[in-house]
């Protein structure tokens, strides 16, 4: 991994130098646009509407438009802002971890100690673990002032950028304002259905099927040339058509429970036979 930023966690007189790394990466197959007739790459030009010339990146600035007035902001202008120059991850407060709503989480970053002795880093990590608290921090990254949550992931301090309060929308759906009567029997069946799907979460057991199929299609085209039918690559099976039939909720719950139980029964029997052996 390559560090994207270096700075220090600060709270009170405590200073913890750290290196910041992106904690996640995109696994999608990289695709680019081409002309379908000859396969030529499609390039987009940064052309000025006033002079008509193609403009290189080093002559492109940002601007804010208000009515008929435009304010141009250069990279030097933006870099001059105090917050942009800050290299601090400043702790504002320590809050109970359960008070953070997951909807606020944005990007995740790993923090590595950047000093000869990791004692201050380990002390902060241990304190967060034992108190079950999360540090709310302010920091600046890539020309944006950000709110963040500093918490422990395994044995590493993790910084997660948070959305600001006004960036989280309020869900107000008219249908949910109406009173809906749920019977005890419906709740029992719903609970039973949920229980039939109950398991411990294991991220490694889930895979991106679309990306796997996309790679399979690309490999087939590479092996057989450019004229490969999708059906030939993946088999002739057609998707089952689903109509708009309205079915009874209770009946749907019962059928779902029976289906889930029948599909999970072989797995349980195998595990039971292993225990018996």
Strand content: 15-25%
- SS-derived structural category: alpha+beta
Give a count of the beta strands, DSSP E runs of length 2 or more: 9
Question: Count the helices. How many?
Answer: 7
What are the low-pLDDT stretches, counting only 5+ consecutive residues below 50? Answer: 267-277
C-alpha termini separation: 45 Å
CATH topology-level fold name of the domain at 5-25 and 81-164: Ku70, Chain: A, Domain 2
CATH class group of the domain at 5-25 and 81-164: Mainly Beta
Strand and helix order = EEEEHHEEHEEEHHHH
CATH architecture of the domain at 5-25 and 81-164: Beta Barrel
Proportion in helices: 25-40%
Features of this protein?
277 residues, alpha+beta, Ku70, Chain: A, Domain 2, seven-stranded mixed beta barrel, 9 strands, 30% helix, extended
Describe it for me?
It is a single chain. With 277 residues, the protein is of the alpha+beta class. Helix content is 30%, strand content 25%. It is built from seven helices and nine strands. A seven-stranded mixed barrel has the order 1-2-6-9-8-7-5. Strands 3-4 form a two-stranded antiparallel ribbon. A hairpin with a 2-residue loop joins β8 and β9. The protein is extended, with a radius of gyration of 27 Å. The chain starts with a strand and ends with a helix. 8% of the residues are buried.
């Amino acid at each position: 991994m390559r560090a994207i930023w270096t700075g220090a966690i600060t709270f009170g007189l405590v200073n913890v130098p750290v290196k910041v790394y992106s904690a996640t990466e995109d696994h999608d197959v990289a695709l680019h646009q081409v002309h379908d007739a000859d396969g030529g790459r499609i390039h987009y030009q940064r052309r000025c509407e006033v002079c008509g010339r193609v403009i290189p990146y080093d002559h492109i600035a940002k601007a804010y438009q208000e009515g008929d007035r435009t304010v141009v902001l250069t990279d030097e202008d933006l870099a001059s802002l105090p917050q942009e120059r800050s290299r601090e991850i400043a702790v504002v407060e320590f809050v109970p971890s359960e008070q953070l709503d997951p909807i606020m989480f944005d990007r995740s970053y790993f923090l590595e100690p950047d000093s000869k002795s990791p004692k201050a880093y380990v002390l902060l990590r241990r304190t967060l673990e034992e108190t079950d608290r999360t540090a709310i921090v302010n920091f600046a990254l890539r020309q944006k002032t950000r709110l963040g949550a500093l918490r422990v992931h395994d044995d590493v301090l993790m910084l997660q950028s948070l959305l600001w309060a006004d960036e989280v929308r309020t869900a107000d759906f008219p249908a949910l304002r109406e009173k809906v009567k749920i019977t005890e029997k419906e709740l029992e069946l719903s609970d039973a259905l949920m229980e039939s799907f109950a398991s411990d979460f294991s991220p490694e057991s889930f895979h991106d099927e679309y990306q796997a199929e996309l790679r399979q299609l690309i490999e087939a085209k590479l092996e057989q040339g450019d004229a490969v039918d999708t059906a030939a690559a993946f088999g002739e099976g057609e998707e089952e058509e689903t109509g708009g039939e309205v079915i009874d909720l209770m009946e749907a719950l019962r059928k779902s429970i029976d289906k889930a139980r029948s599909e999970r029964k072989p797995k349980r029997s195998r595990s039971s036979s292993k225990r018996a052996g």
